[in-house]
Amino acid sequence: MQARAGTAIGIMAGLVLAGAAFAQTAPPTPPTQPAGQQWAPQVKAEPQVAGVTLDEKQVAALRAVTKYFNDLKVLKGAFAQTAPDGKRQRGKFSLKQPGKFRFDYGFGSKLIVVSDGKNLAIQDPDVNSDTRYQVDDTPFRILLRKDVDLLRDARVFEVQEVEDLVIVALGDKSPEISGKIKLFFTKKTGLELKEWVTTDTQGGDTRVEISELIKTEDVDDAQYKIQSLPQPK
């Protein structure tokens, strides 16, 4: 049961999302880099952002990512999650800013990760597990707030542009919120979130890839209401 909850935490908060485990541990080691990719361990130059220096191009990239999240109102699509043990799970998700999201796992799993904007619930009816966290206790709060400003609120560990990708690794400036999230954006048709990687308390990487994205369709707020699981008879 705990392993399944940990897997779900790795998905979002997202964004999706995850960070509750980070709030209880020291900052994790950076995720494993994909084969063939070489990224700098830290960004360099001017100006400083939470003790890390960025050059003008990196600042511009960070501002573009900030604008992406501020412009993002509604997002729906499919996700594929790869757990630290290599297990793959798929499902559907929806996100409505600020801070509301829902991940429904499929293919035999009834696992749900849902946020109403303030609280995050990880629910597994199969084992009657219902774990709650506050979104503000996760590093994802810097991406899910009403006024996203990464230059103001984030600890920046890495900003890279590799071919058609923008890669940003972030943490919360608050010393009470530990952990990192690495975000991957494609630039092929304008900046678009493609995947993210988080690290659990044991140092394992969880990768979440998203696809079939829809931005123009509205979603019903009722799906973000956290319901209590039925009590077993």
How would you sum up this structure, described in words?
This protein has helices at residues 2-9, 19-22, 56-71, 141-144, 150-153, and strands at residues 48-49, 52-53, 74-82, 88-96, 100-105, 112-116, 119-124, 129-134, 154-162, 165-172, 181-186, 192-199, 205-214. It is an alpha+beta fold. It has an eleven-stranded antiparallel beta sheet with strand order 8-7-6-5-4-3-13-12-11-10-9. The protein is globular, with a radius of gyration of 17 Å. It starts with a helix and ends in a 19-residue tail after the last strand. Mean pLDDT is 78; it is low at 1-48.
Keywords, separated by commas or semicolons:
233 residues; single chain; eleven-stranded antiparallel β-sheet; alpha+beta; globular
Short account of what is shown:
The protein has 233 residues and is an alpha+beta fold. The chain is 15% helix and 37% strand.
Cα-based radius of gyration, to the nearest Å? 17 Å
Q: What is the β-strand count?
A: 13
Global mean pLDDT:
78
- The helix/strand series, from N terminus to C terminus, equals HHEEHEEEEEEHHEEEEE
Q: What does the overall shape look like?
A: globular
Residue share in β-strands: 35-45%
Distance between the termini: 20 Å
Question: Order of strands across the biggest sheet?
Answer: 8-7-6-5-4-3-13-12-11-10-9
Major sheet attributes: 11 strands, antiparallel
Helix share bin: 10-25%
Structural class: alpha+beta
Uncertain runs: 1-48
Number of helices: 5
Please write out the topology:
Blueprint: H1 2-9, H2 19-22, E1 48-49, E2 52-53, H3 56-71, E3 74-82, E4 88-96, E5 100-105, E6 112-116, E7 119-124, E8 129-134, H4 141-144, H5 150-153, E9 154-162, E10 165-172, E11 181-186, E12 192-199, E13 205-214
